[in-house]
Design a protein that fits this description.
disordered N terminus
C-alpha cells in the first residue's frame, strides 16, 4: 500500500470494460494487495447456474443472462470492501450502473482493440466474440459500448502496456484523489 494513505477500501470497486481489458487480473491484484473481498461476476453466475456463460447464452439467451448480472449486483450492494470484476456488458443497463454507483466507485479499464484481441484470441468463453475474433469486430463492438462505459465511470485507467501492479496502484491513487477532492468539496459547503 505504498503511497496510499487511508484509502477507503470499504467502498466497493466495480471494474468495468470490454472483455479482455484486464478486469479479473486487476481484481485479483487488488484482492491480494489490499485484502479486499472479490467477486468475479461471470464465475459466480456460471457456478450458480451450473453452466458456462456460453451455455447460458445458448440455452436461455442474452436477456436472461443480463438479468442474472443485475440480481448479483443488487446482492453486492449490501456488502462493502468488495472488488468486482464485471462482465463486459454490465454497464449497458442503467439499472446496473445505478446499483454500482450506490455502493461504490466504478473504474473503467480501457484497452485498445489490438490488445483485447491478443488477450482473447484463444478463449472460447466469450459468446459475443465467438466466430468474430478479429480486431475490426472488437473495435466495432467496443465503439458501441464506449459511451456507456464512459458515462458510468468515476475513474478511467489505460491498461495497454502496463503491469497489473501499475494498474492496481493507479486505481488506488485515483480513488484516494477522488475521495480527497470530494472531502474538500464537502468541507467548503454551507
Amino acid at each position: 500500500m505504498e503511497g496510499i494513505h487511508k484509502v477507503n477500501t470499504k467502498c466497493n470497486l466495480f471494474l468495468i470494460g470490454f472483455m479482455g481489458s484486464g478486469k479479473t487480473t486487476v481484481a485479483n491484484y487488488l484482492k491480494e494487495t489490499y485484502r479486499m473481498d472479490m467477486v468475479e461476476m461471470d464465475l459466480v453466475i456460471s457456478k450458480r447456474e451450473g453452466k458456462s456463460i456460453s451455455d447460458i447464452f445458448a440455452l436461455h439467451g442474452e436477456e436472461y443472462f443480463r438479468g442474472l448480472e443485475t440480481a448479483l449486483l443488487e446482492e453486492i450492494q449490501k456488502k462493502s470492501g468488495v472488488v468486482v470484476s464485471c462482465g463486459g456488458g454490465v454497464p449497458m443497463r442503467s439499472v446496473n450502473v445505478d446499483a454500482m454507483g450506490k455502493s461504490g466507485r466504478i473504474v473503467f479499464l480501457r484497452a485498445s482493440p489490438e490488445t483485447i484481441y491478443e488477450r482473447v484470441k484463444d478463449s472460447h468463453d466469450r459468446p459475443l466474440l465467438e466466430g468474430n475474433k478479429n480486431v475490426a469486430y472488437i473495435s466495432e463492438l467496443l465503439e458501441k459500448r464506449r459511451e456507456k462505459y464512459e458515462a458510468a465511470a468515476d475513474i478511467f485507467i489505460e491498461t495497454d502496456g502496463k503491469k497489473v501492479s501499475e494498474i492496481g496502484e493507479e486505481i488506488m491513487h485515483s480513488l484516494w484523489a477522488l475521495e480527497h477532492k470530494n472531502k474538500n468539496d464537502n468541507d467548503g459547503r454551507i
